[in-house]
Each structure stands twice: as structure tokens, then as C-alpha cells.
Design brief:
This protein is of the alpha/beta class and 660 residues long. It folds into 4 domains: 10-88, Orthogonal Bundle (Non-ribosomal Peptide Synthetase Peptidyl Carrier Protein, Chain A), CATH 1.10.1200.10; 120-200, ACP-like (Non-ribosomal Peptide Synthetase Peptidyl Carrier Protein, Chain A), CATH 1.10.1200; 293-313 and 558-654, Alpha-Beta Complex (Aspartate Aminotransferase, domain 1), CATH 3.90.1150; 322-554, 3-Layer(aba) Sandwich (Aspartate Aminotransferase, domain 2). The chain is 40% helix and 10% strand. The chain is built from 21 helices and 13 strands. It has helices spanning 10-29, 50-63, 78-88, 120-135, 156-169, 185-200, 262-276, 322-335, 343-347, 350-363, 374-385, 400-409, 420-429, 454-464, 486-489, 518-527, 529-532, 539-554, 557-575, 595-607, 637-654; strands at 293-298, 303-309, 367-371, 391-395, 412-416, 437-442, 467-471, 498-502, 512-516, 587-593, 610-611, 613-615, 625-630. The longest helix is centred in the first third of the chain and has 20 residues, at 10-29.
Length: 660
């Protein structure tokens, strides 16, 4: 901090040091400033053990330009840590003042004046202080051009909460929706200045209330309160009426209330209304195997129906293969239902080692570690390898398991905007970073269907000394001549540092895995919490996965048939003028954009007997809604032709443009 604080004197310098220390604690622990009282016990009250404290101190020393310090302070409270840093910087130890009480003890004294909305430079100073508290970055780094997502790692979900907190702290109405175009600190300040000006003169603001209260928003032209509700499952009936509540699931993220569960009540009312309008129909249960056509209990229509199944990731049809099913049944009789433990303590079966050997062989790697799920594989791998001194560069469209793994790691998170140009610019900003760097990307992006430009990404990684993790959740069994994934697709087998996958999609089982060098896998076995502290996948499931790998190798025609089907349906939809973005995989997104229109589109598709995913926030950003169609090798020519016709008929009904 010698360089940062060179112009600060006296109390200013003291306050700057304190805020820096607290910002580092917030970054490492996730606590808000209200929890970091000077006398809070580090271990007893905050749960900061000696290992975590050592990491925090190293970060503080770096920010304060104190270099490496061998001595430990023996601090037990926050105030003692601050005093320790002051002593290292040669400053006097100030007396710690107790915080002012929040309420007046003498009821006869006048009530304090209500907080005034700050103006001008005062507002800017408070905003930067609050952003510093939320992000852990010092105020000196929060310059106007800093990008919230790319530079600070504040994704779209977190942004809503952060800005709502800031608005509330400034005495502004925290119920107003946050505009989508707020991307930089400068745009945050302009937005808050604008709101301050409106609210100070009593100008009306957009009112987004909760529960059964009115929502004063302009209704879409397509909506009609008097339209009759169509009988479930009748595609020829008029569209169901929609109410004037145009909120999305995003509007419940930052709902503030002293009752923690208020957001749950508000969302329940919202969700039930959407279900009554047949717009939300998530979670309908199958009553048969998951094949090209499946029996599903339609709980809106109140009956069991056969649907064309285009919501399944059973890409190669292995979930129904007799050999896979027999292997599961035989292993259950031999090994029982489950191992009832984690891999390190009583949970390992001989089949787990065999599965890991076969997966490593499939990927062309030295070793493999198997996790309970694909989600836990990303969570455990990223958080074990990256730490507070490292940077993780993650694509904005990466799966949530990747984003959560990056958050959990405590590493600095840099989000690039789904292009190599954005990644290159972000990497260049941090060329001189002296910690580790990890680039994380999906192989196939799960809601968009496009494939990462792996050769270009690897060139950037080599230039900037970064390691690379590729998540092959939707690539394993789909890409490459033998279905081994993204690296085989680009003729780069063995050329990526970490290859993550899930076994619940093309391999038709359960679990996740990481393939890498043997020394890395061995490290993960002891430092990856979602492996060490979680029960493993049962031996019968493992047996089924081994059988699925064998069938995939011995029946390559399944992969050929999958791609024939993909090309056929994609061709029909493109010929009809639908927007499939840059999909190159078995995932075909029919992009609409508007959430309400997409939900109506999905309702029309369901009524006609096709089951696919209607994807709105948080699956994609608000305004980027779509239908997500998954193609499998089990679909017949008749299935594909019927699906294309259902999409066209539903588009015609709901006003989605296409070429007839």
C-alpha cells in the first residue's frame, strides 16, 4: 500500500489501511462489513482457522506492499490483525473506538433525522465504498471504466443483489428493476444519479411489487385479460390469457425483507399463476423409460400422455440398452445397493478403479478421478486447484457448476464475453499477474449448442502461461470420431490440462469425472472437498457406466445415427428460418428472445405433444429466452419430421416469425 497510500496522511491513511484489511477479509470469508466487528474473534465467531488466516495475511501483505512476512501475528481478533499490519508499516497503534450505538438510550431525546440521499461526489464515494465491500477490491481499483463482469467477476445474478443493496444503503427504492445495460462502474453511477434525481423530486418510478399487489408495467400487445383459458392439451384452442405481471425469475433474486422466506412466498404465488396459465410446466414426471417417445404424467392436463421426447440428453440411447441394464442388475446382486461412504473411507469398490481407467483411456490421459456428479466435479476440481492468489478466466456462458466452482475457489474471477477476442483482452490486462491462471470453458455450451474454438483458446493459454479446463458434459459421447469429446473433435487428444465430464448424459448413468496428469489427479483425491467428503456413486451405477462405454466403442453406428438426425432436424429448422445461433452439436436452440413470447411458444409445443425445454432466466439471460431441443440417436425420421412441423405450427400460433 506504500504506492497506493503515498498521498494519504494521518487519519485518512489509517482509514485506508483499515478498509483494505476489511476488504481482504470480506473477499476471503464472504462476510459483509456488518459482520466484521473489530473485536470479533477470528476462529470462535468468524470460523477463520489458522490456514485461512495465513492466506488472508499473505493477501494483505501483498496489497500493502509489505513483501513476504515469516512471522505470524498471533492475532485473535480483527483489531489485532489491523494493529499487526500498522506495526509492520511503522504506524502508531490508535485506540479502537467502540462503534456508536444504533439507537438512542434516552427515549426523551429527539429521534434522529432520516438518512438523506447523498448527492454528487458524496454519492460516488459511498457507491465505491459499497462496491469495495461487496467485491473485495480496493477503491483505488474501482475506476469508472472498470467492467463489473469482465474485470470484477460480478455476474448477472450477483449484480442484481449488489446493486439492490447499494440502492437500499443509499436510501433509494430498492424495488426498481436494474437495467440490463449497466455494465461498468460509470454506468452504475449514472443510473444512481438518475434515480436520485427522480426520487428527490417525487417523480414516478417503475413499480415492481410482490405477491398479489399490482405491477404497474405496460402490458404486451399480445396479452388479453378476456381471452378464454384453453383446455390443457388442445392445440386448436385460443391461447391462455396472461396477466399483467411481466416479472421474470430474476426479480426474486434480490427481494429484501426481514423475513428470509418472504421471497419463497412471493415466488410461489408467481409460479402458481404461471402454471395455471400453462407457461411453467417444469418437472413433469416420466412414467416410462426415456426414449424417443416417452409416457409422461401431464400434471396440467391431469393425465398420462405420450410425448415426442426432445428434452433428453440420452444422446446415444444407452439408457435403454439391455446390456447396460443387465450390468446394473448383476452388480446390485453382487455388491448391494450402495457403498455408504466416500472413496477414501470405505466407499471404494473395484469397479470404481476400472471405470476411472477406462475413462482415462477414452480421453487419452494418464489418470481420472470420479465424482458423485458432474456438478461436484467442476465444483471440487476448480476450488481445489485455484486459490485467492490465482485468477480464473471463465466464459460468460459457462455452466453454473463452473461459475460456482470459480466462486468457491476464492480466486479472482474474470468473466469474458464468449469470444476469443474478449478472452485475449482480459488475459492481456492481467499479463503480469504473479499467481496462477486457469481458463475454464465448456466444450459444448449447454444452452447454445456451439463448440468452443479450442485451438485458438489453447494458443492464448500458452501465450499467457495459463492452464486450461474444458467441461465435456455435452461433448463426451457426441464429439470426435469415437465420441471421446472436444479434444478428439479438434485432433488435440491429451492436449488440454483438465478434462471434466458428466456421466449422466451420453453415458446414461450418474457421476462426474476429471481426467488429467496423474500427479494432478492424486492431488484432487485429497484436496477436492466434493470428492473427499461425499459418498461415491454406487457400484451398480458404475457397472452400468462401464457397460455403456463398451457399447459406445462396439456400436459406432449409434454416433453416426445421432449426427444424421442432428443434420436432418437442424436443416429443416434452418430452412424454415428459425434462429439456431451457431449450434454445431446435438443441442438445437430455437431463439426467441422475449421471455413471455417464449413461454407461450413452449406452451403451444407442449399442447401438440412435444416435450422440450423452455429456457428462460436463470438458464439464460433475461431477453435471450429460447426453446432447447436435444436430438438423440433413437429419433426416427417420423419423429424428426413431426417435431419440425410442431415447431412451425406453434410458431404460427404464437406469432414467432418463420418461413412457411
Amino acid at each position: 500500500m506504500g504506492g497506493n497510500a503515498v498521498h494519504l496522511q494521518g487519519e485518512q491513511r489509517s482509514d485506508f489501511l483499515t478498509s483494505t484489511v476489511l476488504a481482504v477479509f470480506q473477499k476471503h470469508t464472504g462476510y459483509g462489513p456488518e459482520h466484521l466487528e473489530p473485536d470479533a474473534e477470528l476462529e470462535g465467531e468468524l470460523g477463520i482457522d489458522s490456514i485461512t488466516l495465513a492466506e488472508i495475511l499473505a493477501d494483505i501483505y501483498q496489497r500493502c506492499e509489505l513483501g513476504h512476512q515469516d512471522t505470524q501475528p498471533g492475532a485473535e481478533t480483527l483489531s489485532q490483525v489491523i494493529d499487526h499490519v500498522r506495526s509492520l508499516m511503522g504506524e502508531e497503534q490508535p485506540q479502537h473506538r467502540a462503534p456508536a450505538p444504533e439507537t438512542q438510550e434516552n427515549p426523551s431525546e429527539p429521534e434522529p433525522e432520516p438518512a438523506q440521499v447523498p448527492t454528487g461526489d458524496v454519492l460516488e464515494g459511498q457507491v465505491l465504498t459499497l462496491l469495495s465491500a461487496h467485491t473485495g477490491y480496493s477503491r483505488e481499483l474501482l475506476v469508472p471504466e472498470v467492467h463489473l463482469e469482465e474485470d470484477l467477476g460480478i455476474d448477472s445474478v450477483t449484480r442484481v443483489s449488489v446493486l439492490a443493496d447499494i440502492a437500499s444503503a443509499l436510501g433509494l427504492d430498492c424495488g426498481e428493476a436494474v437495467p440490463e445495460d449497466i455494465a461498468t462502474i460509470d454506468s452504475v453511477l449514472r443510473w444512481l444519479h438518475s434515480r436520485q434525481a427522480r426520487e428527490s423530486v417525487g417523480a414516478p418510478v417503475q413499480e415492481v411489487t410482490s405477491g398479489t399487489d399490482a405491477v404497474t408495467e405496460k402490458k404486451t400487445e399480445e396479452s388479453s385479460e378476456d381471452a378464454p383459458i384453453a383446455p390443457p392439451g388442445d392445440p386448436d384452442s385460443p391461447a391462455t390469457a396472461v396477466d399483467s405481471d411481466n416479472r421474470t425469475m430474476k426479480d426474486f433474486v434480490a427481494l429484501r425483507d426481514p423475513d428470509l422466506f418472504r421471497k419463497a412466498r412471493e415466488f410461489r404465488d408467481f409460479y402458481q399463476r404461471k402454471r395455471e396459465q400453462e407457461l411453467y410446466w417444469y418437472g413433469m414426471p416420466l412414467t416410462s423409460g426415456c426414449r424417443n417417445r416417452a409416457m409422461i404424467y401431464d400434471d396440467i392436463a391431469g393425465c398420462e400422455r405420450e410425448f415426442l421426447m426432445f428434452a433428453s440428453n440420452n444422446y446415444l440411447g444407452l439408457a435403454n440398452h439391455p446390456r447396460v441394464i443387465d450390468a446394473i442388475a448383476d452388480a446390485a446382486r453382487s455388491y448391494g445397493a450402495t457403498n455408504t461412504g466416500c472413496r477414501l473411507i470405505g466407499g471404494s469398490n473395484v469397479l470404481h478403479g476400472e471405470l476411472e481407467r477406462r475413462l482415462a483411456e477414452l480421453k487419452g490421459r494418464e489418470a481420472c478421478i470420479v465424482y458423485p456428479s458432474g456438478y461436484s466435479a467442476n465444483l471440487g476440481c476448480i476450488s481445489a486447484l485455484a486459490g485467492p492468489h490465482d485468477l480464473v478466466f471463465t466464459d460468460a456462458l459457462n455452466h453454473m457448476s463452473i461459475q460456482d466452482g470459480c466462486k468457491l475457489s476464492g480466486a479472482g474471477r474474470r468473466i469474458y464475453q464468449h469470444s476469443l477476442e474478449s478472452l485475449a483482452g482480459t488475459l492481456e490486462k492481467h499479463r503480469d499477474h504473479n499467481g496462477g491462471k486457469l481458463i475454464v470453458t465448456d466444450g459444448v455450451f449447454s444452452m447454445h449448442g456451439d463448440i468452443v474454438d479450442l485451438p485458438g483458446l489453447m494458443e492464448l493459454a500458452e501465450e499467457h502461461g495459463a492452464r486450461v479446463l474444458v467441461d465435456d458434459a455435452h461433448s463426451t459421447g457426441v464429439l470426435g470420431r469415437k465420441g471421446s469429446g472436444t479434444t478428439e473433435h479438434f485432433h488435440m487428444k491429451g492436449g488440454v490440462d483438465l478434462e471434466v465430464g458428466t456421466m449422466s448424459k451420453a453415458l446414461s448413468g450418474l457421476g462426474g469425472f476429471v481426467c488429467a496428469d496423474e500427479e494432478v489427479v492424486e492431488y484432487l483425491r485429497f484436496y477436492s472437498h466434493s470428492y473427499v467428503f461425499a459418498a461415491t456413486i454406487p457400484a451398480p451405477v458404475v457397472a452400468g457406466l462401464i457397460a455403456a462405454l463398451e457399447v459406445m466403442e462396439e456400436e459406432p453406428q449409434r454416433l453416426s445415427r445421432l449426427w444424421r438426425n442432428v443434420h436432418q432436424l437442424r436443416g429443416e429448422l434452418l430452412e424454415s428460418g428459425f434462429n439456431l445461433e451457431r449450434s454445431e452439436s446435438a443441442i438445437l436452440p430455437v431463439v426467441v428472445g422475449d421471455d413471455q413470447k417464449t413461454l407461450e411458444f413452449g406452451r403451444a409445443v407442449r399442447r401438440r405433444g412435444m416435450f422440450c425445454q423452455t429456457v428462460v432466466y436463470p438458464g439464460v439471460a433475461v431477453g435471450d429466452a429460447r426453446l432447447r431441443i436435444s436430438v438423440t440417436s433413437e429419433h426416427t425420421d417420423e419423429d424428426l419430421a413431426q417435431a419440425a412441423e410442431i415447431i412451425r405450427e406453434s410458431a404460427r400460433e404464437t406469432g414467432i416469425p418463420f418461413r412457411a
